[in-house]
Amino acid sequence: MKNIPPAALIGLFFTGLYFLMALFAPLLAPYGMAEIVGGVWEPSSSQFLLGTDSIGRDLLSRMIYGGRTTIFIATMGTILSFVTGSILGFLAAVSGGWVDQLLSRFVDLLMSIPTLIFALVVLSVMPVTIPVLILVMGLLDSTRVYRLARAVAVDIAVMDFVEAARLRGEKTAWIIFREILPNALSPLVAEMGLRFIFMVLFVSTLSFLGLGVQPPEADWGGIVKENKEGIVYGIPAALLPAFAIATLAISVNLVADWVLNRTTSLKGGRG
Amino acid sequence: MSDPLVKVRGLKIGATVYPPGEKPHDIEIVHGVDFDLQKGKVLGLIGESGAGKSTIGLATMAYGRGGVEITGGEVWVNGRDILKTGLRDVRRLRGSEVTYVSQSAAASFNPAKKIMEQVTEAAIRHNKFNRKEAEARAVELFAKLGLPEPETIGNRYPHQVSGGQLQRCMTALALCPEPDLVVFDEPTTALDVTTQIDVLAAIKEAIRDTGVAALYITHDLAVVAQVSDHIMVLRMGDMVEYGTTDQIINSPQEEYTQALVSVRSIKHIEKDPTPEPVLSVRNITARYPGTHFDVLHDVTVDLHPGQTLAVVGESGSGKSTLARVITGLLPPSDGTIDFAGRTLSAGLGGRSREDLRELQMIYQMADTAMNPRQTVGTIIGRPLEFYFGLRGREKQKRIQELLDEIELGEGFQDRYPAELSGGQKQRVCIARALAAKPKMIICDEVTSALDPLVADGILKLLLDLQKIEDVAYLFITHDLATVRAIADSIAVMYQGKVQRYGSKTEVLSPPFDDYTDLLLSSVPEMKLGWLEEVIAHRKMESAGN
C-alpha cells in the first residue's frame, strides 16, 4: 500500500470521509433527521452550520442523513447490478450458443427502453420502499454491466488456459469464478466507480421526481427538491447536494483509476 | 579500404523495466557493441531473444522501440554520427538511406491501402523519384523478387496476396528508395519452411543485384549462413563472436557459438511399434461449423504406448485440427477414435473424467496456456486436486516432486507465470499435463515459440519424461529438425490429408513423394551454398507462393 499517488490519496480521503459520515450519521448529526429546530431558510450560523431548510430543519443534519440514504441505496444497487450483470455476462460468454443469444437479446430489449422511464413506470405501480428501489435500479443497471462483462469475458474465454480447464473437465462455475473472473476484474472495477456514481445520480433523480426516497426520509435528491424554490431568493440550500454528489463522484473515480492502474498490466501494475 | 558505410562504436542501449511488485527501473540491454559494415556487404546479427539484435538493428536508424533508448556510443552512417546530427537529419535518413523490413509483413502493411501506394511512399516523400519513376522502379523490383504479375500486383490490397508474397512486397518497399542499407529483422521467421526458402532466395538475389548493404537479423544460424558475408553472434547485449560466415559456421571459436551451430544434438533411435496402439484414429473427416469444406479428409494414424508420433505439415495442413478432434473440442463428421482400448465419444461432453485425465495437452504459447492470476502451485496443483482429490501437505509434496521432475527447484510454487522465462513456462505446462498421470500427451508446437537452445532443453526433458512415465506423445510441429530428434513414427500432412505415414526411417528415406521432398529439402542446412543447391533441384512449387 506504499507509494500511493497524491490523486488517489485525495480520492481515498474524501471517499472514506463520505462513507464514514454515512456509517456514523446518528452520531455525527447535530440534530435529528426530521426535527424542526429553527426558522425557514435561516442562514448559516454557529447553531446551524449550513443553515436550515424550507421548513426549518437543520441542513447539515439533513445532508448527513441524506448522504447515508443515498450512499446506501447506491452501494447496494451497484453490488446487485455487478453481481447479476457480471455473472450472467460471464455465463453468456462461456456458454455461447442459445444461452448467449437468449440473454443478450433480452438485455437488448431492456436497454431499448430508456432506464428512467422504465423505472418511473415500475415504481409508479409498485410500493416505493428502499428494497424495491434498490432492486429496480440494480436490475436495470445490470444490463450495462452485462454488456461489459460479456465483452471482456469473450476475449478471455478463447485463451488456451480456459480451453485447458475445459479439457480437464472443469464445471462452468469453476471456469467463471476461477479462470475468468480474476482476469476480468480490472475493467469491472473501473466500471464500478462509474456505475456507482450513476446510481447516486439515478436515485437522486428519482427522489427529485418524487418516486424515490419518500419524505420525511432525507436523501440528496429530495433535499434539492425541497429547497429548489429557495434558489430564486439566493438561498444555496439546493446546491449543497449537487456539491456533495460532484465531490463524491470525483473522489470515487480517483480511487477506481488508481485500482485500475495497479491491476491493469498482467505483467505487474504500473504506478 | 574505403570508409565503411556503417561504423558503430561502443553502442549502449537502455530500457525501463516494470518487474511485478517492484518499482520500475532502468537497465542496460546492449553493453557497448562495435562493428563496421562495408558498402554492398551483408552482416548477419544472430542471437536468442533478448540478445539485443533487433535493438541494434534499429539503432542504425537512430531509433529505439517501445521505451528503449540509445544511451551511449556512436553510430556513423555515410560519414556522420546519426546520434548527434539531430532530428531533421535523422528524418532524412530513415526510409531514404536506411530502410527496414520487419518480421510480420501482415502487421506492417496498412490493410486499407493498396500495395503500390505503400511501396512507393518513402521514395516519393523523400523526393528520390516522382510517382511515375517510383512506380516503374517498384514494378522492376516486384519482377526481380519473383512476384507473380509484377505489372499489376501493386494494385492489390495486402490481404489479396499470400504471406510469402507480402514479405517480398515489403522487401520491395525497403529497396524502392534506393537505400544504402536495409535492416532485415527476421524477415522469414513467420513463414512456412517451404515459403521461407523462396523469400530467402529472392532477398538474396535482390541484395546482390542492387548492391545494397544489409543487416540481416535472425535467430536461425542456418538461414543467416545463406545470405550474409559476415556474422556477429550476440548474447544478452554483448558480442560473443564476429567473423566471416565460413569461419563462424565451420570453425566457431566460442563455446556459445559452438552450441548454436551444433544445436539439435539429440539422438533418438526409434522404437518398434507395439501390438496394441494407445490411440487409433480411424478415417477421421472433420470440418468447422458453418464452413463448407473439410479440413481433414479420411485421416488414419496410430500411436503406440510410450512412443512419439510426429504430425508434420505447414500452416493450414490440418495438424492442429487433428488435435482438436482427438481432444473432443471439434467433433468429427466421420470416423472414430479409439483410446486405451475404448472408443472415445466424439464430443467433449460425452467423455468420462478418466478419458479426460488420460489424454492431456500442451500448447504452443505457454503464456496463454496458464492463467496469469494463478501461481505455479495452483496451476500444477489443480489436476492433482481435481483428478486424485489430493489436499494439503500431500498435494504440496506431489507438486514439489513434479517441479523436480521438470528441473525447476524449490521456490517456484509461489511464482506467477509472468515471473518465469519462456522455457520455464513451458516446463510448468508440462508438469501440469504430467500431474494427471496421462497415457498420452498432445504437444501442439510446444517448442516453436522458444529459442533453439531452450527448445533443445524442452525436447530432452520430454524424452526423459517419456522413459520415466511411459507416456505417449502426439507431437504436432512444422519443424523437421525437431521431428528427427524425437519421433518414432511420422505422419506428413498436406491440405488435410495424410501424405506419408510410417516409422521415422521409412518416412525419411527415399523415394519421396513430391510434397515430402519439398518439405524435407526446405529445411535450412548449416552449410554455405545450400540455398542455391536446393533451388536448382526443386520439383514442386510451395503452396505459400
TrEMBL record, chain A:
Localization (cell): Cell membrane
Membrane-traversing stretches: 6-29, 71-96, 116-140, 196-213, 233-260
Alphabetic keyword roster: Cell membrane, Membrane, Transmembrane, Transmembrane helix, Transport
Coiled coil: none
GO biological process, one term: transmembrane transport
Topology with respect to the bilayer: Multi-pass membrane protein
Top-level taxon of origin: Bacteria
Segments forming domain ABC transmembrane type-1: 67-256
An annotated GO cellular component: plasma membrane
Family, similarity comment: Belongs to the binding-protein-dependent transport system permease family.
Stated name of the protein: Peptide/nickel transport system permease protein
Natural source organism: Sedimentitalea nanhaiensis
From TrEMBL, chain B:
A GO MF term: ATP binding
ABC transporter domain boundaries: 8-261, 279-520
Membrane topology: Peripheral membrane protein
Superkingdom classification of source: Bacteria
Gene3D superfamilies associated with the record: P-loop containing nucleotide triphosphate hydrolases
GO cellular component terms, semicolon-separated: plasma membrane
SUPFAM superfamilies assigned to the protein according to its UniProt record, in alphabetical order: P-loop containing nucleoside triphosphate hydrolases
GO terms under biological process: peptide transport; transmembrane transport
Record localization: Cell inner membrane
Keywords: ATP-binding, Nucleotide-binding, Transport
Entries under InterPro entries matching the protein: AAA+_ATPase (IPR003593), ABC_transp_ATP-bind (IPR050319), ABC_transporter-like_ATP-bd (IPR003439), ABC_transporter-like_CS (IPR017871), Oligopep_ABC_C (IPR013563), P-loop_NTPase (IPR027417)
Pfam family, one: oligo_HPY
Similarity remark: Belongs to the ABC transporter superfamily.
Protein name as it appears in the record: Peptide/nickel transport system ATP-binding protein
Originating organism: Sedimentitalea nanhaiensis
